[in-house]
């Protein structure tokens, strides 16, 4: 901690009653902590939205970053799937020709248990990095062409970076392939009740040969 003393106040301060030269002292501890992007205090909250305008970050130097908190009541994942109560944080880092989004979220998705067929809330957590390429050169206003094999997500013409699609994909990947509502599930375990009668007829001949060997 240190004190910053202003020895030469602007005239507007010197003309204020009771304030003389060297009287104004500012303690650094009274200000919230800043990150390298100049943000102060806790990260701003983005509520029920997934797009961020990054024009200021694009004007900053390589390595600068912005931190955000995100809170979504719902995020559609598929025709019959919706993530709910999505909470988390993400950081946007400025690189030479792109912005890296470092995302960490959690929430729930209603799934159907494959054992008892009841609907239940499946918790999920996803942590990943995603690349967003710059599409407009701020200095010239010219469009930045992408290569044929460039699979990065794009920052749109309004300099908005939208994490909705990569977030949707990562949440889907994080869900279990065989949903089960838990140890107290009242339904039978389908794996345990499978018998030889369930063998696919198309593989019956192969199974017989393997048995003989």
Tell me the number of helical segments per DSSP (H or I, 4 or more residues long): 5
Percent in helix: 10-25%
Tally of distinct domains? 1
Order of helices and strands: EHEEEHEEEEEEHHH
Measured by DSSP, the beta-strand proportion falls in 35-45%
The general outline is elongated
Describe the structure.
The chain has 213 residues and is an alpha+beta fold. It has one domain. The strands form three sheets. Strands 3-5-6-7-8-9 form a six-stranded mixed sheet. Strands 1-2 form a two-stranded antiparallel ribbon. A hairpin with a 3-residue loop joins strand 6 and strand 7. It is elongated and about 70 Å long.
Name the descriptors:
single chain; 213 residues; elongated
Produce the secondary structure layout.
Elements: E1 3-5, H1 11-14, E2 25-27, E3 45-47, E4 51-53, H2 55-59, E5 65-78, E6 81-94, E7 98-112, E8 119-133, E9 153-154, E10 160-162, H3 164-174, H4 190-193, H5 204-212
Parallel strand pairs: 3-5, 8-9
Antiparallel strand pairs: 1-2, 4-10, 5-6, 6-7, 7-8
